[in-house]
Amino acid sequence: MFTSGNINKDSKPYPIGIIGGGQLALMLVEAAKERNIKVCIQTKSSDDPAALKADKVIHADPLQIRGNKSLLKNCEKVIFENEWVKIEKLKQIGSEVFFIPNLDSLYPLVDRISQKRFIDKLNLPSPKWLPIKDFENLAEEDLKTWKFPIMAKSFKGGYDGKGNKKISSKEELDNFLNMNMSEEWIIEEWIDYEKEIALIGSRDNDGVIRVFPIVETFQLNNICHWVLSPAQTSYEVDIFAYNIFSSIVNDLNYVGVLGIEFFFGKCGLLINEIAPRTHNSGHFSIEACNSSQFDQQICISSGIKPPDINMNSEGALMINLLGLKKNYSLKIEDRIEKLSNINGANIHWYGKSKENFGRKMGHITFLLDENNHKKRSEKADSLKKEVNDIWPSPYDSKNRLI
Q1: Judgement on whether residues 52 and 137 belong to the same structural domain of the protein
Q2: Residue 137 resides in a domain
Q3: CB neighbour list of residue 134: distance below 8 Å, 6 or more residues apart
Q4: Report field, pTM of the whole predicted structure over 0.90
Q5: How far apart are CA 288 and CA 285, in angstroms?
Q6: Based on the domain organization, do 18 and 54 belong to the same domain?
Q7: Are 116 and 281 in contact (CB under 8 A)?
Q8: pLDDT digits (tens, 9 = 90+) for 82-100
Q9: What is the pLDDT of residues 132-167, one digit of tens each?
Q10: Residues contacting 7, CB < 8 A, separation 6+
Q11: Which of 17, 111, 193, 335 could link 265 by a cystine bridge, Cβ 3.0 to 4.6 Å?
């Protein structure tokens, strides 16, 4: 029988293992190679992005426990591409010391309900919410306190526009309730925010916290289109966001990289979601910082003291390259070649086998040298247009990044 005991006795040829093989795992592998650290990944297919560069691939679904066992047998530490893992099963096959972050830290963040309850426990600001089964059972008077539109979010696994639905009327709500199982969704109040911002940071094994600049993100159809760093925020908002980050990671005794998405506006600063991993809003850090979010995670996981984080430029713009329709006139190769000719372009191509509509195929980053936010925003707008003329947003009928 394979147990955690013989996992400990086996030799471990790989310092780091990654559960998952998508683009986040790919960039973790690339960061590890920069530090001459070998990486083994567990993923379904040899065609997955990280499989193309990893030192070893265990071909198994990331949720497959047999594959998890093999990964633990081969690796000193195991990190996660995303939080959709079977924590109870992982606890049965390996010690907490194998995982970064540890499984108890990860547990409150693996789905939206446990996240919301954790945020409420810490009395941190976030939109009003209810599990959908509780919402269905509200008394008439209580129901009146909820105003349309409202947002329905899937209990688990929602990302890139999946698992989110805006509900604008009682009729839409009734239809939605008739079509969905109660335990699979939550209902959240609709927030009229002015902008969305995000904060990525890390906490190392000594409890030292390091944070990247707060960034502004732009979502269309619930998919991030671009990220501008740093965001234009006040000192008070920055401190509040940093305190929220510190409260979360310290309460969880969390070790590793973590991201928080916020709504900001008349509502103040509200937590939208917590990502216990590297995050799309931190991709700019690869070129724009002395140590990227991926480097921070690799350092922490391999026992290297992470560098303190500093920007290499005044700012940065990151644009996601999203899959277009099959009949789009310009082939991928031609788009990439044209993008590479834009001055200052840093292209990250994920090597995915198919260009599905709206799928994240890669991203492009530009460093911004302008010394104030207005000038950086103007430069960013110019670059967005230049990129969009070559690779338009799949969701904007006018072929413009807004």
Answers
A1: no
A2: yes
A3: none
A4: yes
A5: 5
A6: yes
A7: no
A8: 998 889 999 998 777 899 9
A9: 989 988 998 998 899 999 999 998 765 655 688 899
A10: 69, 72, 73, 93, 94, 95, 98
A11: 193
